[in-house]
Amino acid sequence: MVLNEKLNPTSNPHLPFGDQRGAPFYGKDILSVKQFNRQDLAYIFEVAHEMREMVTRIGTFDLLKGKILASLFYEPSTRTSSSFTAAMERLGGSVIPINEVKYSSVSKGESLPDTVRTLECYADVIVLRHPEVGASAEAAKYARKPIINAGDGVGEHPTQALLDLFTIVEELGQVDGLTVTMLGDLKYGRTVHSLARLLSLYDVRLNYVSPEILRMPAEIIEEVDGKDIPQAEHRDLEAVLAETDVLYVTRVQKERFENLDDYDAVRGLYVIDAETMTRAKAEMIVMHPLPRVGEISMDVDDDPRAAYFRQMEYGLYIRMALLAMVLGKA
Ligand code: CP
Known about the structure:
The chain is of the alpha/beta class. Helix content is 35%, strand content 13%.
């Protein structure tokens, strides 16, 4: 199940012919987790496994030699931008980094469609982070080259959700049967929006723990409900901590608040520390998309259940897999 087929060999004179044609995801945009089914996910994870093996064995290799990624970030990023760069370079390709759009022609008023039309003259794929919901889908309407959504405002962060799910599979062996508890800012946290949707393809139970003003949006709850996934909302983590297999912690997103008094009222409400972990299962994992700003204490970092640093590394293999796939080399 894929969206927006591009680079059609019959219509695109710039298509490089060869083994790319017919490859799953070749030339496709990655805009939302809604475009994936379980079979797609199994395939992506299989390719990610191969990438991990290759990086472990030889580090860098030439699968995407000669290919260029435009990395276009209108919002700050450490992990997503640097892991896409590392992924492209591990695959032998190169990167046009535009991490400070204020130094690009965006600051002169250039529109998003014009910017992506420009970058696709120079690059084979564009990774885009933008503060507005739907910006990647909008960009994809104008671009002939694949657009990968690296976060669109409070909308989605599909590549993060893919790496999150890959983390769960790698750490716990399977997804079916798990209880996943999402904690913190579920309103503005785009990673939990994407992850809840992706998890609804599996036989899971979802708990949402948040302050009243940061509840999971009704639209997501309705969508997940449509897949008959049991969901429960709580204010207190203790109500569900003991039954939790995956505790997915999120940062309260200060930058999304219109009123900072509201932010002050909820900041620091949930803090996971070593004492909290004494009431969690012996076999479970704690995840976080990062950055963290105090919601997981550093005294949890050495707990083997703390998966958030390993989670970042899984992201490299997932992004290598996605780049190889959309460029027809997987
Ligand atoms: N998880 C994540 O999206 O991190 P960055 O904002 O650093 O990219």
